[in-house]
Amino acid sequence: GQPEQALVVADLSRGRVLAERQGVAAPARRPQAAFTTTAGRLQAVLVFYWIGPERSYAWVVTERAIRLVALATTEEEIALRVRDYQRGIVESLVDPIASSTSGDQLYATLIAPLSRWIPRNSRVVIVPDGPLNTLNFETLPVPGEHRHYWIEDVEIAVAPSLSALSVRPS
Asked: What DSSP string describes 77-143?
């Protein structure tokens, strides 16, 4: 019932894991307002994924609001689709735009539920989780009359955590 606070806790957890791996101090807890401020400063939509064994979520952060979206998928399903999509791109002679692929399923699961908050020509910063760390979001096919890759709609960057985006260089 507190999606903003849940995002703070999820990002703090992610930041601690990253800090431990790099042997540096864990990030300080940031208020949720820091995330909306960062989105405004970067003029971007921030998308934070939390992929779980039984449930998965995405938070969409804009300069005005933080929204939590439950995703209709599990970690196992996403991992399978990511592997299938990557295999299809590397090993197949079929153009992902020309045929229905696991890329379509990934777009429908990961992007479509968030699309109302991601306007065309937006800058999008994605904080992936689990199997999404190996997914090239730019190549996901966008459905419709004129199928195309998502990179034609948005500018995409990837970040390890939202807290990492909040740090200003000195």
From this structure: HHHHHHHHHHHHHHH--S-TTTS--HHHHHIIIIIGGGGGGS-TT-EEEEE--GGGGG--GGGPEEP
